[in-house]
């Protein structure tokens, strides 16, 4: 791999080092592809990855600082999406150096986009019950089955596929994690429109699709352990607001259509000193949100951590801040955000001392669900009846703004419609609680242990 990556020497030097690098390298007239190539190979796209995997081995907090600094500088951020959030850390953990140099390199440079082919119609919470099968023929595997809820499947070059390679093994064994090429006619991706009006996710039909033996990550039959690494990054990354998946407004990969465009056209304005202007303008500066959020959106939370401030500004703007019950809930929202920050600091301190906080990712994800629900409820109370109107198509936005007289209403309804998603994706709230109960608190497992029983002999969905 590239030997240009030098680990960031200390936290104090980090921002200086990054700013110097940005001053020397950022050029808005580069294409998105050229810029991401520079950013990725210098280790700034995914600085949380180890140094042998195109990263700088930074902590999550420092990775977020890097993301924020790039944005404040006015440069295009790292290529977002599931490649950076999930596939890269999974391949970095379980892949060979050859696989890292192939897959991770293409992720950090934005050359390829990924989707996550985990969930199936009969295997969501019970992911290990998956039935998508892979049969080996020579050095090629033939894949048959159906996946669903596949976020960004329609723009993905590669899929993180988990499939059953040995049904005679117990349920959690005999599963294998593959890096599958999505560019084949045997892979049929069909978009599903959700209630936000967007088609973030898709159903994917795999009918004699092919994947090479050399595209197995982490070893044949070891897919459950590898998938758990992916899920761990999904939970902790999404719980903390996207982590190093941050990303700019450009879409990575060959299908998204952004690579040949001018990088400067996607870059944010350099950050100016904080304005003390009253409400609507300030709130407007945070108006931009990821349309998908999600299991893989550029940023998991449409609020990017500034949710309470945004709602406070909105409430100040229309006078609902005078309502004591709204004030109380705004305080609760602010407190939940602060708790999240403190918990991240706690984790950082624990890691520094060579320790961990068991269940941290699960707890963070549960906290994010709470924040999303509370934000939804407060937002709708602040904007009142206008919250019942929503423009599902971009072209209807102006008409809606005119009808409600509130340009921020759409943002609130978008958040409210999206708020149902985080408690489901990456493992539902109930599943997070089960994991915390069983693996952190040591509570007894659910009855009906099927350990050791071959998958082929299990009753369906057992
Ligand atoms: C916006 C979004 C994006 C997504 N993106 C992707 C993606 O890119 N790739 C992908 O593979 N998947 C994706 N998913 C799928 C997601 O991971 C699943 O929806 C999730 O795991 C739940 O599975 P399910 O929908 O089959 O629900 P089910 O598993 O059928 O659960 C239904 C209900 O039963 C509860 N339940 C189930 N089992 C238990 C139990 N043992 N104890 C207590 N309660 C239980 C659940 O909490 C839930 O309330 C996405 C989902 C959403 C909403």
From TrEMBL:
Q: Where is this region: Disordered?
A: 261-304, 442-462
Identify the Pfam families for this entry. Acyl-CoA_dh_1, Acyl-CoA_dh_M
The keyword Flavoprotein is annotated on this UniProt entry: yes
Any one GO molecular-function label of the UniProt entry = flavin adenine dinucleotide binding
* Cell wall biogenesis/degradation recorded as keyword: no
Q: Name one GO cellular component term.
A: plasma membrane
Which InterPro entries does the protein's record reference?
A: Acyl-CoA_Oxase/DH_mid-dom, Acyl-CoA_Oxase/DH_mid-dom_sf, AcylCo_DH-like_C, AcylCo_DH/oxidase_C, AcylCoA_DH/ox_N_sf, AcylCoA_DH/oxidase_NM_dom_sf, Mycobact_Acyl-CoA_DH
Please note every region of biased composition (Basic and acidic residues).
Answer: 274-289
Question: Which keywords has UniProt assigned to this entry?
Answer: FAD, Flavoprotein, Oxidoreductase
Q: Where is the Acyl-CoA dehydrogenase/oxidase C-terminal domain?
A: 316-441
Show where the Acyl-CoA oxidase/dehydrogenase middle domain sits: 115-198
| Swiss-Prot/TrEMBL cofactor(s) | FAD
Question: Which family, according to the similarity comment?
Answer: Belongs to the acyl-CoA dehydrogenase family.
Give the PANTHER family listed for this entry: ACYL-COA DEHYDROGENASE, ACYL-COA DEHYDROGENASE FADE34
Name of this chain's protein = Unannotated protein
